[in-house]
Every structure is written in structure tokens, then in C-alpha cells.
Amino acid sequence: PYMLPSPTKKSKVTIRAVLIGVLLIPINCFWHIQMTLVWLMNFPAILTLLFNVVFILFILVLINQFLKKYIPTVTLQQGELLTIYTMLCVSTALSGYDMMQCLISLIGSGTWYATVENEWVELFGHYLPHQLVIKDHTILAPFYKGGTTFYTTKYVQAWLVPTVCWTVFIIILIWVMLCINVLLRKQWIENERLAYPIVELPFNMTQEGERSIFSNQLVWIGIAISGGIGLLNGISHLYPSVPNIPIWVTSVNRLVTTKPWNAIFSMNITLYPFVIGLGFLMPLSLAFSYWSFYLFWQIQRIIGSQLGLSSLPGFPYPMAQVRGVWIGLLFFAIWGGRQHLRQVLRKSLTGQGIDDSREPMEYRRAILGICIGMSAILGFCRLFGVSLWFALSFFTIYFALSTVITRIRAELGPPAHDMYGAGPDYILTTFLGVRRIGPQNLAMMTLFYWLNRESYRAHPMPHQLEGFKLANRIRMPANRLIIAILIATVLGSIFCFWSILHVGYKLGMESKLYRTTWFAREGYSILASRFTQPADISYTDPLFMGIGFAFTIVVMLFRSKFLWWPLHPVGYAVSGWWIIGRLWFPLLISTMLKWLILRFGGVKSYRNLVPFFQGLILGDFIVGSSWSILGILLGKPTYVFWGG
């Protein structure tokens, strides 16, 4: 059996590391908001490997090398660097484009965008709790129009109550995720030995001496290639007379305009170096599944157009199929870990059996933590009029989906994952119908739109378990890491509010930061349509959910029976929406390269070349981050190496 090595003296979460994380979170959050909202230069939280955090880690490693040479007594150890990395990852995911940026916009958009024509005030205005939203136009007008400052008593007091309420809710949400991850950690990290490709680069960056990737010449060659492309393209962006190397080659949708080929959805030819690097780190069969299932989705659309099925609203129903796929993946994850879960339950009830002394917390406390956290979430919902049964159903589905996303990241490690429309809102309205849910539940479900729209891209739960994986690799006890993550959660939430309110009142959400209002307006528009045209139980969506579920079961059975079977339904779950259209081609390139290297050079050649592909990632991230910082300092848009 797998035995966790004893912790070393150097591998621990220190107060110093947490304090550095505390100091960096506000800076990182402000930079993040400037990038995504003010200048629209890059969208880090849409990716699984957060380039802004990797860039900060790179700077810390450089500083550490300087300290090691001149003041060796104060150098940061690997465990400290990875603690800071994990804290920054969690806070970045929270302040992402899909999560808290959407939440803060939801607080005011229901009132600000209400008009006589759309009748939002009459339809649902009275269902929105005043503690969670702002309904005073004198507070919202300068926030959406800009030209003033947030730092007045009137504005600070108005935003204080929603900020505190939502921050408390977020802390509870993250706590439940942490407790779930404690129960899953041993099974996925030690028993099943999942790949966790996302953590390879930060782990190798923080290695010391000969083990450091920076001592390998291939890393610097990779950095020189991707970084050189980014540098040249950045100069070309500022001075168009300078030639560039196109990363975005073409859009297939513009090239094919005749039926049935025009049914192709969001298909682009790109050459992102960092995606090629990330694809090379992914397990070969899973990387193959990622882009091949994307092409399978396109084939469905083309055949549907040829047969006239595209006239059906929503065909091929990717959202419904993905819901079925993730339910199937959850089923297999539970089934595969049933022995472990049984031992966890026995340990919690009797105190005997599986050893949990080296877990981040005892299993009994983790289960109790889930119960207390869920009770607090249900109490929060009940306080604002949500039916107990509805809140329990909503968040049970939400945490189940969060667990699947965490599993996908641990097993596949894709550059991005997009599961739009697969959340509890669509599932509950599909199976129950709008009328059975009720107006108050629908209104509160809209205030949770930041949880169930596209927040599965920027999701904090996978970063928690990846932090546990990093701790495991360096033999560092993870109990203190939980405290560090919770501190990062509090600070990440508060400083995300501050960063957006600061630039909102200064520049105007409507005039300059309009992109963050899109999701909020979409959520309220859906709510209005549910009030005016309440849909009954859907029968088409459950059918395609069943197809997705059955497809997952069949593919997983094939994988268990035939070792040569190359496909994994994880790829099907995350490739149905638009973002994979920007990633599939570089992933195809990296898959072919990896297959050729393994086929003709063997595992040794593959391992020898990994540093080069990690260099491709680093070069893109370092130069791309530097351009964004320069743009903020100059007050002008600069080169975007990656766009959402």
C-alpha cells in the first residue's frame, strides 16, 4: 500500500508564508481586475493554470535565488512557496470573471437595468432581499456611470451589508469544499494516483538545486521561443509596422458559410504555445479525448443541420448531454472509491479502521464540517425566503458538480474546462418546471447565478485539492494549509469587492467595465422570462441527459475492459461549449508530438523533453503577464497572449 512519507522539517506552512500571501493577495486581486475589466487584456481565471499566479511565483523564485546567494538565512523553502501559490490560486479563482465579478454586478443590475418596458421591478424586485442587493439609485448611478470615488461614507455604508453577507456565505461555501476534499484526498492522490498535470509546473519551479527546472537548458529554449513570440507580437501591437507571428490564425466559421458546414460552432485555428505545453503534460488518452470529442460535437451539429434537426431549439442539446455526462462521471467516481468511502464512514462512526492521522483534518471532523457548513448555507437561504427543500436540492447538485470538476482537473488537467448550462438551475427547472419552484426560490436562484452559469471555469475547489497534492509531494502536513486557504478566501472576497468598487465608481461599470454586467443582465433576463413565460417540465432535456449518461457508462465500461481504448468521457464533458474552440488545434499538435515521441523515443525521451514544453508555458505566461502590467502602468491596451 501507498505510504505517505514522514514530513520534513523544511516542509511546512509557516506564518511567514501566510503573511506574504496576505500581502500579495490585494496586489494580485487589483491586477486581476485591471486586466479583466478595465483593459480587457487577459482572463487568467478562465484557464486552469493561472498565469498571473505562475508569474508571481516566478518572481518569488527569482527573489529567492538572490536571497539564497546573499542572505541564505531568510530564503523561502519549497513548502512556503507552494503555500503562497495555493493562497493566490484560491483568491484568483474567487475573483474570476465568472464568479465574484458576476456576483458584484448582480448586486446592482437587477435595479439599475430595470425599466418600464421590461417590468423587472414589478416582476421580481420585491423578491430580492435588500440585505443582498442594492436598490438605491443614488448609490448605483455613480457606480454604473463613474466619474466619482467610492471612498465616501454614503457609498461605503451602502455596500457594507451586501459585502459582509456575501463574504460570510463565500467562506461557508469554501469550507464545505475543503471538507469534501479532505474526504477525497487519500483516494484520488494516494490510492488512484491521479495525474494532476496542473501542479507539475509550480512544483518543478520551486525545486532547488539540480532538481530545479531552471537548471535545464531545454526550459530556457522553450521560454525563449514562446517568450520571443510574445515579445515580438507585443512590440508589433504597439508599433504595427513591426511584423508579428500570428497566434490566432483563422476562424473556421468565417471560411465555411454554406449548409451544413455553417452549423460548426466556435471553431478556430490557434497556435497558443502555452496550450501546446499544457497538452504535452496531459495523459495522452485524455488529451486525445479532449479534442477528438470536440470534433465529435461538431459532427453532431453538421449531421443535425443536414438532416434538418438543427431546427429543433438547442440541438444537439450540449448542455443537457453534459449534465448527463457529469452525473455519469460522479457515479463512476463514487463507485471506484466506494471502499475508501466505506472506510471513511466507518472511521467517523467507530473511530477504527483507516488511518486519518496525516489527513488535513480527521474524517469525523470533515463530515461534521460538511454538516455544519450545509446547515449554515441552508440557514442563509432560509433567512431570505428560500424553501428548505429547494436550497438543499440546489446545493447538493452544486457540490456534486464541483466534485466532478475537481476530479476532471485531477485526472485530465485540461487548459480550460467549460460546463456551461450544466448546473443546478437548469437541472431543477428541467425536472420540476418553473411553477413548482416558486417566485422567491427563482429570485434567489438568480442571485446565485454567479455560481451556476460559467463559474465552473473559475472554480476554487480544484485549487484546494491541487494544494493538497502539492503538500503531499513535498511531505508537508496540510492541516495548516486549510487555515491558509480560508485566510485567502476572506481576503480574496474582500479585496475583490474593493477592487471592483474602486474602479466602478471611478470609471463606471456601464461605460468602461460593461463586460462584467453581461452575465448579471443575462441572469435577470432569464428570471423575467421565467416569470412571464413559466416553462413546464421539459422532456427533451432529460432525454438528452439520459443519452449523455448512457454514453458515459458505455465509454467507461470500454475503458475498464480494453486497455487500448483511447477515449475518456471526461473529454466529452468539457468540450461541448465555445472555449475549446480556441484550444483544440494546439492540443491536437501537442497530442501528435507526444505520441510520436513516446512511439519512437520511449518514456525516457518524453521525460527529457518535458522541461522544454514547460518552458513554452512559462515563456508565454512571463511575457504575457509583463505586457499586461506594462499596459496598466502606461494606461493603454497592450498585447493579449490569451483572451477569453
Walk me through this protein's architecture.
It is a single chain. The chain has 644 residues and is an all-alpha fold. Helices cover 67% and strands 1% of the residues. The protein has a two-stranded antiparallel ribbon with strand order 1-2. Helix 3 (78-94) packs antiparallel against helix 21 and helix 16 crosses helix 21 (460-473). The longest helix has 39 residues, at 153-191. It is globular, with a radius of gyration of 24 Å.
Mean pLDDT: 91
What is the percentage of strand-forming residues? Answer: under 5%
C-alpha Rg (nearest Å):
24 Å
**H-E order:** HHHHHHHHHEHEHHHHHHHHHHHHHHHHH
Question: Which short descriptors sum up this protein?
Answer:
mainly alpha; single chain
Short structural description:
This protein is mainly α and 644 residues long. It has helices at residues 15-38, 51-70, 78-94, 100-112, 120-124, 137-145, 153-191, 200-205, 217-238, 252-255, 273-281, 284-307, 318-336, 338-350, 363-383, 388-411, 424-432, 434-437, 439-447, 449-452, 460-473, 479-507, 515-532, 540-561, 569-574, 584-600, 602-634, and strands spanning 248-251, 268-270.
